[in-house]
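Researcher: Batch entry, complex prediction.
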Amino acid sequence: MTEKQKKTVKKKSIFKKILIPLMGLLILEILILVCSVFGQGIITELNNNEKAIINEKVESRKNYLENEMIGSWMNLTYTAELINDSTEKLLKSGAITMQTLDNGSDYAVPLLSEAAEPLLAMMRTNHVTGAFIILNTGDLSVDKINGQLKDKPGIYLRDSNPQAQPSYRNQDILIERAPIALVRQMGIATDTAWNPKFDFQDSGQSYYDFLYKPFQAAYENPEYSMEDCGYWSHVFNLFGEGKRAIAYSIPLKLSDGSVYGVLGIDITQDYLREFIPNEEIADSGTGAYILALEQEDGTLSDALVNGAAYTKEAEEGKKIKIDSSQYYAYSETLNLYNSNTPFSDEKWVLTGAAPLDSIMDFAKKVELALMAAVTVTIIIGLLGSFLISYKVQKPVSDLSKEIREKDPTKRIQLCQTGIEEIDQMTQAIEKLSLDVIDSGQKFTKIIEMASVRLAGFQIDRAERQLFKTENFFDIFGCPEADGIEMSIEDFDAKFKEFKHYFVEKDELADSYIYKIPDGRGSRFLKLKCRMTEDSCYGLVEDVTQSLLEKKVLQHERDHDPLTNLFNRRAFRREVQELFEERQEELKTAALIMIDLDNLKYINDTYGHDYGDKYIIKAALAFRYYLPAGAITARISGDEFNIFLYGYDSEKEIQTVIDTMKMGLDSMVLTLPGDILQKVQASGGIAWYPKDSTSFEVLLKYADYAMYMVKNSTKGEILSFDKEHYLSKNSLIQNKEALTRLIERRAVKYAFQPIVDARTGKVFAYEALMRPEMEEFKSVLDVLEIARYEGKLNQIEEMTWFEAMRAFVGHIKAGTIAEDAYIFFNSIPNQYLSMQAERTFADEYREYLGQIVVELTEEERIDREAWDEKRTHGRELRRKIALDDYGSGYNSEKMLITISPDYIKVDIAIVNGIHQSSDKRAIVEYIVNYAHERGKFIIAEGVETEEETEEVIRLGVDYLQGYYVAKPTFTPAGILPQALETIEKMKN
Amino acid sequence: MKNWKRAAAAAMIMTLTAAGCGSGAGTKKEKETALDPEKPVTITVWNYYTGAQQTAFDGLVEEFNQSRGKDLGITVKASNEGGITDLEENVLAAAEKKVGAKEVPNIFAAYTDTAYNVDKMGIVADLSEYFTEKEKEEYIDSYITEGSFPDGESLKILPVAKATEVFMLNKTDWDKFASATGAELSDLETIEGLTETAEKYYEWTDSLTEEPDDGKAFFGRDAMANYMIIGAMQLGTQIIEGDGTGKVKINFPEEIARKLWDNYYIPFINGHFSAAGRFRSDDIKTGNIISFVGSSSGATFFPDKVILNDDESYSIETEILPAPQFKEGEGYAVQQGAGMVVTKGSEAEIEASVEFLKWFTDTKQNTYFSAASGYLPVKKVANDAEAMQKETDGNETVGKVIEVSIETVNNNHLYTTPAYDNGTTARNVLEYSMSDKAAEDRQAIEADIAAGTPRGDAIAKYDTDENFKAWYQSTKEKLEQTVK
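Model: Structure tokens for the complex:
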């Protein structure tokens, strides 16, 4: 995981990871539960169900009541018929007359005493609370209009409990109305309100509805039967008696149509209540059944109520209007009258009224239970989630803490959590710990096996832990420190003790070298550190061996094995470093170039061993008499360079030089035959910064100064004379011209044929540079200035490319044969850069095999440059020609050194060869030498027929010279004269 | 982990401890109750109350249901099951599970005899263990004793309202008579005096009209059995004599019978006494008689006016006097009024019944009921005339009845017949044998008179020793039949 990812992934504890989803789940469950209950309208549904239940109850209750009323209470006809029979009989017998019947009890008693029995029987049979018969024969409405009500005879009986078994002695019955005669006759107790007659006249009581309504209906409508005129009276109290009741009565009507009274029953409110139990509407009697007459406006009048609600209103005779904000009411109409009967528009209804509270009670209970369940669920869920989360988190966090506190380098043993997966993980960690320790030990062992001693450590700053290899301090020579438990601070402190052994820091490799004294010598330790954000890794390596080996190699590379002085390369490096990087250290400095005199002589005379000894003597002088800061080097055989710097004045340096010169002069080499040879050297001094601030220029000036000495007095060391240098080398002033020449490549090449001395055929052309600028008369001028300007290298490069370009141009122009070779001059101590070599090789690949490089004798050969050139040349099938053989001072050495393929005999040898036996001997010798070694001889500067004949006779292989062909910009063939000579010589 | 386990254990212990404490407290408090307001019990009470008594009783039942009953989970349903005789029959029918009979009620009103009979069927609960001794002592001793059968230890009938007999008088008409004849109320203290006064009254009323032999009856009795039993007691004879174990013997000496005969049958056939309506209060109402001995519980039925016919009526004042006793007899008064019998049922039902009865007989309720009905409270402290007067709420008659009743209770031995198997039958014999014969013979005499026989002759025909002896023998036999 990358650092960035780490940051984006929010870390949560296991506790939260478990708790939060569990909570979420809990909330979701509760939401689903609550939504499923409330969302689906279950509560409303429950309420509706409750209402529907009430509706059903009211309906069935109404049916029951209706059955009871119609089927039982209203069965009056039979009794009416019985009474009618008695009446008819009594009328016939004259015991009563219709005219006097309702005049008073005495007139009515005969009929009433006949009617008493059936009336009583009817009351029993119909299970009603009262039964009555009232006699009347006249139009009651007339009395009403007149305001003169009349008393009416009759019987009114009350049964206190119609549902109880009838009393044999009628002890459960009270007489409310009956003539005295009947009271005695019936043996039934009178109620306190007993009256012999129905008293309307004085009591102020108007005609009861149950008398008036059915009687008048029958009286006024003869066509109606008794039943048709049956009427349920409004609520009434019998005068003098307190019970609220309703009554049903029918008119008593004889077959002739005369109406003589009413027969009826009553139902007291108390009794009715048994038929309309309000408990079934709502618990604990809070509901109510109301039997009442429904008015047009929906209110209820004449209500008989069972239940607390509206009882008071009913008792007070008020109209009831159900308050729908408090009660749920449902009404059912009782079908008590036949259609089109006089009272069929009276609408008796049974209303069930339940307090809304009680209806919603169940729903509320459900709601409460639900809320309780939700609350309990939440509490249990919360506690449960918390406990579960805690139970899972606790062992894990304990374990985590335990693991953090454990030393990872020791074997870890952890407590069991009891959670299978985690215990498996724990075991894995324990095993891992063992593996780590094991591999740590393995690693230490491997480290111990290394050829160099190694030790390592790691500091974890974040975890404050230190890890080190077992014998870490042993490598520092303090094995006793390895036995001690160490904190990071201890480790740091211990490490600081090694501070004074610190020798150097390698910035690049970020490593530190410590030099630890170790008995006989020292050991070198290399400490490499790598820091990360919160860790530090270190590796300590014993580098003694490799460091020593490296130093030897370095020494060998930088030093001349003979003198143990710096070699040319080291010298240049050291001095160049001073010039380039430590210029401030230079102050006043001097570059001294010294050439040993007489070395060639000693070599030649006494052999190289003495030459070497001679050189060593000189080196010793330098060592003895030069101060430590001097950089001294042997550049080549007899040449030494000395660089003195950091002085305040030239004078100081001069003193040093003088001392050194005296020391040098004091050196004496004993040669064989006890000849004492003094060491003598010539030298030139170039001053810094007086002469130049450029190292290269100083070299040139010192060199110049040295040559001045060498070419004159010898044995002296003189300073560079700039004036002299400038006057003697006016050409040098043309250095700008040289730059232009190089830039413009302002040179042209003339081609001089080299022909086969046997056939006269042109074998090759030598490309000869011709500067195309006024400043330069000849190529020698160019070379001279280039040498002083340090631009020989550029001249070399130009030569290669331009000569080859011209050559190829001619081949392509057909002026040179395709298989012809090209010879051109190379400066021996210069060579092409790798880059240039590659470009050249690419450009002229197909001609590389035709190239012969001529090395002039003019410059002293640079061994290294040569080696380089030679190696490259071989690879590129390049051939070498030694130019001007026999003219220079070092021809044989060159011959051996460069081992050329062609040897060009110098013009000085060829010129007048036919007249000099010495010259002939040299040529004869070199031809033999060359031919024995598979090399070829070219005779240069053949100018006459005699010379031509002679060299051919001497066996040279090729000819070059004015006699054969002159150099021309357009390559020419062999001259006819030369061809003739060659032909002649063949023969 | 350990912590929450400990917490759970602690919670559990707390719960258990709380539960333990709860039950511990419960046992300390009282006897375990089977009542639970969450599971209401409905108990049925059968009674014989009618009229004002019924109203008062139902009112109290309603009050109970709304107050203490509600608290304890008891609903009482009261129903009138006819008169005391009908009630008994209905209870027996229910107990015997006769066809069409109702369920046995939890409580029914009963006289000792009925309770005794029902108890024999094994359905009567013994209430003694539901009452502490202290509670029992609050009731008037003889009331408790009456219900302690068959062994005197148990409690089978709880007295709720008691009655005794008083003498009620239409003072308005009496005053006319007294002022005309010089009759005095003190004449009415003895039965013999009453008999004489009745004759005097007949003669006085007869004299008021030209019409001969149209004298009016002065007196009537509601409960003939009481007359017979208490009369005999006053005269020193216990007609039904129990031995405390449910066994009885009949004592019915001829001279006692004769004295009873002479003081009821003889004045009755003479027209001095009468019984026309169902109760003698009805006879007062219709002007048939002007006095009677009846239960104090009938006080509310005592009329405030006399209605002679459709057109003639007048208001009357009422005088209440102690029931007359035999001149030379001992002071005995009847103790009547049914008690309440609790039938066996579930423990909750019995407890509920007892709770209701305790509440109903508690001084306040009992006093109220007594005052409204003319019954007597059953507790000693409630039998305080002054306190009762306050409750009568201006009903003068009832007030007087209670005053006299308490006086009667205080001045006399209260007596009720011991319960035995045929106690009811015996009582019925005593109730009807003389009264029925008297009524019958009086009817015959009246018919004879109407047929032209002179009044004296017509009466003389029945006022004979033979007639008495025949009746005596027949009645004695009937009585003795009940103990065979």
